[in-house]
Design brief:
The protein is of the alpha/beta class. It contains 14 helices and 18 strands.
Amino acid sequence: MKRFLVSLSLLALAMGGNVSYAQVAESAEWATRIKAEGLARSQVEELAQYMTDYVGSRLTASLQKRRADSLMLVKLTEIGLSNPRSAYATEFTRGGWDVVKTYAAMTAPYYCAFSVNPRAWSGSTDGLVKGECVVFDVQTKEDLEKYRGKVAGKILLVPSTRTVEINFEPLASRYDEKELEALTKDDRAQARSGRYGGRATYDYRAMMELRQLMADFYKTEKPLCIVNGSGTFNVPSGSGVSYTAGDPEPIPELNMPLEDHGRMIRLINRGQKVEMELELINRFTNDTEVHNLYAEIPGSDPKLKDEIVLIGAHYDSWHGGTGAADNASGCIVMVEAMRILKELGFKPKRTIRLALWGGEEQGLYGSRGYLDNYLYKDGKKLPGFDKFALYLNMDNGSGRFRGIYLERNDAAFPFFEAWMKPIESLGFQYLSPRTTGSTDHVTFNRLGLPAYQFIQDELEYGRTYHTLMDTYERLSLGDLRLNATIVAWLAACAADDPGRIPVNASVDLNQLPQRPF
């Protein structure tokens, strides 16, 4: 390994005090068997088609998500995992919402049908409606008053702050060695104040106040629809509006690609009259719960079987496309890793648990619910806290694993250095002391628990996730096979290693609020 990483390991050993670091990997025989099953007899392609084409989109609390949960439980049962189940995680005040029909076209100055995506939890039109388009440029509450009494029955085009320009960078890319080497360098000395970075520079309170004023404006002024520019390459993105189950339905809102959205705004600004016709039918349901899916390979050691090695990914998606890269890809890898171990008859000492989270896209609801139910609540540790051995998370598209972010937990290095040696030939070679955010592992490492996200090749993730383009075609099946094999191996090592990665020494539970979010 890199000299830097070895020195960190020695430092972690020196700082370990009364902690015993065994750093024991599984046997070479098991490494050979796991690689053979994962690479030569992979079920990734079948799982990928199942979780995308067949299951479809999986918006939190939607009827589609409930269908997807049922289908996934069938698959986990087929694999032979123990106790596959759907379990309540937490409340979800928005309730359920599903798309029934979406149609949008410009009808003047000429006809052009558009690819659009309704914003989740927005309302429906009264059948097929037609209206004139108005540029609705509101930056302050004073701007809002200029439109009062002038927008009823109109379609409001909200200008985007983004512009579209020719990009000469490749559409898809992999890390090069220089970039990966940079990730192995400790960045704590240069990090911004606070464990998770500094404050945002914009006035968040003013922004939220303006949003609420605009929402109130829409209710009283009654435009036909709000049209946002969101997405590029003529592919709209997915997002949601603020809504609470039981409230009156909000004004219909659409996301439209910046290219089409910009065309209409330019036409209006040049004095052209622009009109659209729309038919949006969205269904609201009173489902206010987030559920997670779980299944296990039970531990076999009488002293260790209650300890949990957790592997997971979020199963929910936005409603455009089929949520392939974000995040069926992570679910495919984690389910396949469990299948590999189950197929080989691996008997772990600790229990290996699969978690497929709900509600990640709206704020890590599923993993936060797991924390509340099993690990830490109201400022107190629950019994599961001291039984938590490791969490491995995947949520950066379908790119190949190149290593792992160890969240500034120096004590984790010797474990991963030992475990990774048999899989270095698969390209898993880099341990980073850095943090990475924005997905479910953050729930756990805010408590100092050993929970980690992988370093992955980006591929084309940045231009496809949260869009209608996020379908089966966005998956790199070869990369997913490698990733599943790596997860299966790491989970096996963590389940059988006599030692356990300790809680991050930099986190003081006594200084955390009752709810660390």
